[in-house]
Write a structure and sequence with these properties.
By secondary structure, the protein is an all-alpha fold. 70% of the residues lie in helices and 3% in strands. It has a single domain, classed as Up-down Bundle (Four Helix Bundle (Hemerythrin (Met), subunit A)). It has 9 helices and 2 strands. Strands 1-2 form a two-stranded antiparallel ribbon. β1 and β2 form a beta hairpin. The chain starts with a strand and ends with a helix.
């Protein structure tokens, strides 16, 4: 049964394996925040490295749940909504902690004095939070209107670029600001992807309202991969076709 007003979400799909992995990725966020907080306060490089491993595991789980969803046809509406949300929350929380838990703590003072103690400058965090806030607030409206949460190539490249910048930021004292340059480029790409995304959902909503396009449902999103390209669906039998024609 789909949730009222959001036809893409079916309660029966809440506990599919890809969605459970996505929940795990979201649960990694508070664990990471705690580790980074203690790393900063105690000036512990070891805890910083443990936090890095948590981030790597969470990022790796994103690849796993996407592969399972495509391989075993477990794509779902809630997965299409939660997966990018989990990515955004992870990126924001990681950058937020790498900024404040280094720039305002003994860890940054002891290991990155050349950059004022900042592993990630707070300007990057502000820019990313502004962009992600727009996307998070837009998501419920998109689903209520029946549009699809569609990935685009620029968004994928931006996410990958930001991830590379985040990984390098853990080693900021050794990479000579290469991490900041990559983060700046990734955030620029993410703003471009957000503009493309908003243009696309506006087009979808206009077509849905005019009857040119049908609303996304929990059934038809199953036959869409993570990039919203059609995937093979089971062929309908003659009986199914006849039953549909009688409706």
């Amino acid at each position: 049964m789909a949730y009222k007003g959001m036809a893409q979400i079916d309660k029966k799909e809440l506990w599919t394996i890809p969605n459970i992995i996505t929940y795990f990725r979201i649960l990694c966020i508070p664990a990471y925040i705690l580790l980074m907080t203690f790393a900063g306060l105690r000036s512990s490089v070891m805890l910083l490295h443990v936090a890095f491993l948590v981030f790597v595991v969470a990022a790796g789980s994103d690849l796993v749940d996407g592969w399972i969803a495509r391989k075993f046809n477990m794509t779902s509406g809630i997965g299409m909504a939660l997966d990018p949300l989990a990515d955004k929350l992870m990126h924001v929380s990681v950058l937020f902690c790498l900024s404040l838990c280094t720039g305002l703590t003994p860890l940054g003072e002891n290991t990155a004095a050349a950059s004022g103690g900042w592993y990630v400058h707070y300007a990057f965090v502000i820019l990313l939070i502004l962009k992600e806030a727009i996307m998070v607030f837009a998501a419920p409206l998109v689903m209520k209107k029946g549009a699809k949460v569609q990935a685009n190539w620029m968004g994928k490249v931006a996410s990958f670029t930001v991830s590379v910048g985040v990984i390098l930021s853990f080693f900021h004292p050794y990479v000579m600001y290469a991490d900041w340059g990559i983060l700046a480029w990734g955030i620029c790409l993410s703003y471009g992807a957000a503009i493309n995304y908003l243009i696309d959902i506006t087009r979808q909503i206009r077509k849905i309202n005019s009857g040119e396009m049908e609303r996304a449902t929990s059934e038809n999103v199953k036959h869409t991969d993570s990039g919203n390209n059609p995937i093979d669906a089971p062929a309908k039998s003659d009986a199914d076709t006849a039953a549909e024609s009688e409706k």
